[in-house]
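Problem: given the chain below (136 residues), write out its structure.
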Amino acid sequence: MLPLPPVSLPLLPVSLPLPLLLLLLLLLLLLLLLLLLLLLLLLLLLLLLLLLLLLLLLPPLLLLLLLLLLLLLLLLLLLLLLLLLLLLLLLLLLLQLLLLLLLLYCCYCCYSCYCCYCYYCCYCCYCCCCYSCCCY
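Solution.
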């Protein structure tokens, strides 16, 4: 059986394959996590500024209590920051695995396909491979 001629991709596809959707969701989650990290760092900076201001204004005993409280809060924020960084590293690892899955999905599709008249041809190989009708 002869392969069908290659098809051209539309400019705006109607739907996306599942690995690509997962990849986009993971990227959005990474962006939200980075924003949270930036907000946390800003909060740490504000706490340090508040600490410096308190050093200049308060009497010694009250200052000592507030310093201890701020130190505890600072340690909790640093712990939260470390946990967020760990989560960010795990998400980056998941992103790499998802990209690998997408690549394997695409190449498996290309190895087993005949060109067809449908959307989402992948070009990791030299054939036109459509997600919706050639990847079985």
